[in-house]
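Fold this sequence, please.
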Amino acid sequence: MKNFIDSVVRTPGMLFMAMLTTGFTINAGVHYINGTGFEGPNLLAAGCLVVGQVALAVVHQMRRFSQNNKLTLQ
């Protein structure tokens, strides 16, 4: 399980997407506290980034699994 988590963390782009998600979430919190009513687009962007992170991790793991697979088709 540790190898899987390390592999997901090392996925290219995962850290950048996590930083963007954190930024959008903080920005949404600031808008909520100030009462501007503009937190919706920031939360939507953060949610889309989370979905993108999950999709990126799944695709990267599938690619990694296919490269490590020893079976060959004949």
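The mean pLDDT is 86. The radius of gyration is 17 Å.
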